[in-house]
Write a structure and sequence with these properties.
CATH topology of the largest domain: Rossmann fold
Bound molecules: uridine-5'-diphosphate
CATH architecture of the largest domain: 3-Layer(aba) Sandwich
Radius of gyration: 22 Å
CATH superfamily of the largest domain: Glycogen Phosphorylase B
Oligomer: single chain
Shape: globular
Helix content: 40-55%
Pfam families: UDPGT
EC number: 2.4.1.-
Distance between the termini: 29 Å
Number of strands: 15
CATH class of the largest domain: Alpha Beta
Number of helices: 19
InterPro entries: Tudor (IPR002999), UDP_glucos_trans (IPR002213), UDP_glycos_trans_CS (IPR035595)
Protein name: Glycosyltransferase
Organism: Leersia perrieri
């Protein structure tokens, strides 16, 4: 699989060869593996760049593409962790010992440049490269694309709404003066009215030593030849069009990418780290009524302070609804474990499942028993929730999550805010309780007890779920965009 000449399958005749370079972080790498699958299903050849520890996580993905006979190869490059002061085998953002190591991690990613360029030069002799699609954080890949003389497209794993807002923040320097976190910034040039306190804007709480690298990422991104989005026209038409108009760069909305999975086995293997007993989860969900279960998950990076987790647990208990709760509590996990074991788990055992670590999120969401999704508003989670047509309770923490919350609550109107007041820095934990058990109980009850407002929200969510699926069916907007993307990149290659 790691051999340059090797490919998961013969794949038949292909029309274009895409090199995909994900950021090594679950929330960025997972949609890029989905993208690889989608492009290959539409006849493209795909080289997915990865490192050994990340390749190990892709075993389920690789088995899936092999079984389907798709033209996907992994291009595996050793990761120079030790050269950058990182523990051996630390090859993904979720493996970092602390946020202080993030800038070293990004530098280590940059060191993949020369070995990757060499591999692609070799690979090109057999299969010409048509374009490079890279995570915005892998800014150095632009130089490789230029060297190969092919288009460089970027992917940031976020909504178009948040990406455009981020662009305006950078372009108009909205966070230049940062004395007052409560000060409201107005996004002029945004197609719908948008205002946000500075403290909730992405980039408002930088990790140490990141300023220069973020500046570089932003600058380089301006030079990309276009953007690939994990979204679909019907969901974000206005923002796609307006973002394209402002930047003059094409956007290819080809999502929801998670819909490349169609059965429980492959869905459960997504991310390949599940610590839950999938069969037990499914059996338990099968025993529940449709739309009766609350699913709570905060993605792959957010950690929540023990006292806040206790409040969340007590709120779920008070709501009296069945739930699946994915608990990630970072370094303070023993404290939470002690509390869970000290009566809570026993009290809720008939109606709650607690998953410690990594959950088969897509598999769970996909089940008809799920009625509400409590989410941290990472874009993958939101778009996965949209695909399955469930209303959401939004609990953002950092980065663009507050923008995604705005999209879900104010524009799509398929969710309610739990009421988080301010952002925190990624990698740190909120030091006080910002969401009370009462907040949890009230919002869960509001959505699950099916008053008129909740019913309308559920209907809108279901409609969006139908549109999401249609987008990827034959003739749908994303289906057509994938075809056009492959065609255009293939044509450029033939012309060059
Ligand atoms: N995920 C999962 N199991 C978990 C946590 C996360 O499968 O226990 C997946 C989730 O389905 C999504 C991704 O990991 O595809 C998380 O991405 P998101 O953008 O939601 O949040 P991030 O982790 O980047 O904050």
């Amino acid at each position: 699989m790691a051999d340059d000449d090797d490919i998961a399958t013969g794949g038949g005749s292909t029309t274009a060869h895409f090199v995909l370079v994900p950021m090594m972080a679950a929330g960025h790498a997972i949609p890029m593996t989905d993208m690889a699958r989608l492009l290959a299903e539409h006849g493209a050849e795909v080289s997915l760049v990865t490192t050994p520890a990340n390749a190990a996580r892709m075993a389920g993905f690789v088995a899936g593409v092999e079984e389907a006979g798709l033209a996907v190869r992994l291009v595996e490059i050793p990761f120079p962790a030790a050269d950058f002061g990182l523990p051996d085998g630390c090859e993904s953002v979720d493996m970092l010992p602390s946020i202080d190591h993030f800038s070293n991690f990004l530098e280590a990613c940059g060191a993949l440049r020369d070995p990757l360029a060499a591999r692609l030069r070799r690979l090109r002799q057999r299969t010409p490269v048509s374009c490079v699609v890279a995570d915005t954080m892998q800014w150095w890949t632009g130089e490789i694309a230029r060297e190969l003389g092919v288009p460089w497209l970027t992917f940031n794993g976020s909504s178009t709404f948040a990406s455009f807002a981020r662009y305006i923040i950078y372009h108009d320097n909205l966070l230049e003066d940062f004395t007052d976190r409560e000060e409201i910034v107005t996004f002029s040039g945004f197609p719908t009215p948008l205002e946000l306190p500075k403290g909730k804007c992405p980039g408002s709480r930088r990790s140490p030593g990141l300023d220069q690298v973020i500046e570089k990422i932003n600058k380089k991104q301006m030079r990309s030849d276009g953007r690939v989005m994990n979204s679909f026209q019907e969901l974000e038409d206005l923002y796609i069009e307006s973002f394209e108009g402002t930047t003059g760069k094409k956007i290819w909305a080809i999502g929801p990418m998670c819909l490349c999975y169609r059965d429980n086995n492959t869905i459960a293997a997504r991310g390949n780290m599940a610590s839950a007993d999938e069969a037990r989860c499914l059996q338990w969900l099968d025993s529940k009524n449709p739309s009766s279960v609350v699913f709570v998950s905060f993605g792959s990076l957010a950690t929540i302070e023990p006292q806040q987790l206790v409040e969340l647990g007590l709120g779920l208990e008070a709501s009296k609804k069945p739930f699946i709760w994915v608990v990630r509590a970072g370094k303070n996990f023993p404290e939470v474990e002690e509390w869970l074991a000290d009566g809570f788990e026993e009290r809720v055992k008939d109606r709650g499942i607690i998953i410690r670590g990594w959950a088969p999120q897509m598999m769970i969401l996909w089940h008809q028993a799920i009625g509400v999704f409590v989410t941290h508003c990472g874009w993958n989670s939101i778009i996965e929730g949209i695909c399955v047509g469930v209303p959401m309770i939004t609990w953002p923490q950092f980065a663009e999550q507050f923008l995604n919350e705005k999209l879900v609550v104010d524009h799509l109107k398929i969710g309610v805010k739990i009421g988080v007041k301010g952002g925190i820095q990624w990698g740190s934990e909120q030091k006080e309780v910002v969401v009370t058990r009462n907040d949890v109980e009230t919002t869960v009850s509001m959505l699950m007890n099916e008053g008129e407002a909740a019913q309308e929200m559920r209907m809108r969510a279901e409609d969006l779920g139908i549109m999401a699926k249609r987008a990827l069916e034959e003739g749908g907007s994303s289906y057509n965009n994938i075809r056009l993307l492959i065609q255009e990149m293939g044509n450029k290659q033939n012309a060059g």
